Amino acid sequence: MSFSKQPPFSSSTATTTVEPPIATSLSAIHPDILQSHVLTRLDGLSLFSAACTSTELNSLASHRDLWTNICHSTWPSTNTPRIREIISRLPNGSRSFFSESFPLTTGLPANLQRNYDYPSELISAVDIHYKNKPIFSKVVETETSSAWFLCSPFRIDMLDPKDTCRTPIPNSGTEETCHDLVGDLSLSWILIDPTRLRSMNLSSHKPVSVQRHWLSGEVHARFATVLAAGERGTASECVQCGIVVTCGGGAQGGEMDVRGVSLQVEDMDGVFLDGEGSLGIFSAGFEGKKGMSGRREIEGRKRYEMFLGRKRERKERKLKKEGTLDMLCVSFGVMVFFSLGLFLWLR
């Protein structure tokens, strides 16, 4: 038995079909299609990237309605009359607001001179999402020119003590809830200077820590941004803008409420800054550089851990110094005691 070596298709009968070239230029696509059916499906970062690829896309991606929709979908709090009025006064409207408010704020170099006028008012636009769905949104205006504000410990609360906000967050009664919230919860705290039309985001986007209180059972999710301070003239001096979301209530297996959302500023000695000190930090932060937009969570956690490490080292040095002083005091006391005893004995 023999097998033929002839290929299944003979070269004499094979035919080749050449497809007509397909136009790949964007000019072949109607601008209305790109704007209505393509660009509207992009988030803010993707839209910025698309705008950098060509002159035509840059023009289409600059449409105000696109950025207005992106801001409203990213931060529902921006769809309030007060925030809309502020955005309308920006050079490029919602596009300018997004570029300032989305990235992580890094603050200014610590040795840079600060000659900024403090804002007379601060506006906080806060949005909390659970599994990418909004569960809390609120805008609070804070007057900052009174003597009481400047001298008192700085703190902004988004909820009154008796107010709560129902959420779909389940209360398992175990540490599993804390573990899940690290990935499921996200927060944006946009701080706005309405006079000079400046804004920055003080949140790490994702929690840097989630813990359950041992006594009350409430869950505390902490978000943070570390800003350069430089009050002592060193590049390592920094402060933590800490945001704490408190969730509690509901029987085990039920749904928890948001009971508190607050912002405070803490230095490396563990001291909370007063209003005047915080305004100095914010004024510098408004003018500061913005971090990489796509690495907010990683960079935010990295800088928070760095802050905790430096804070711990400073505390250890302080305790060591105090311990040395205590030993010197004890030694001096012993010397005085024996000298006095010797003096009395010789008499």
TrEMBL record:
Keywords: Membrane, Transmembrane, Transmembrane helix. Residues 31-68 form the F-box domain. The chain crosses the membrane at residues 324-346. InterPro entries: AT3G44326-like, F-box-like_dom_sf, F-box_dom. Pfam families: F-box. PANTHER family: F-BOX PROTEIN-RELATED, OS11G0155100 PROTEIN. This is F-box domain-containing protein. It comes from Salix udensis.
